[in-house]
Amino acid sequence: MGVIMSNKITAAARKLRKNYTKAENLLWQKLRNRQLEGFKFRRQQPVGSYILDFVNFKKGIVFHYYKPFIFIEFFVSLP
Question: Following DSSP, what letter does each residue of 45-62 receive, concatenated?
Fold first, then answer.
């Protein structure tokens, strides 16, 4: 069951990467290639059963786009 769910989530993330909105594209253009304070962001990243819109794992920053708002969340990674 876990592998099937993982494959579905990964496929959904790939689809989201290909079919993005204009607002998502504008935000991605500012986040990609370490343009924001040198932080590396990933786009439409599967994590468990969720897909994070834009995430920096090292600093624990998530940008979540939900029309017409952008939410910024911070998380702490425990060892």
Answer: EEETTEEEEEEETTTTEE
> pTM (2 decimals)?
0.75
Helix or strand holding residue 66 (H, E): strand 61-66
Instruction: Give the model confidence (pLDDT) of 11-34 as tens digits.
Output: 999 998 999 888 889 889 999 999
N- to C-terminal Cα separation, the chain: 27
9 touches 3 (CB < 8 A): no
Q: Report yes or no: 31 and 45 within 8 Å, Cβ to Cβ.
A: no
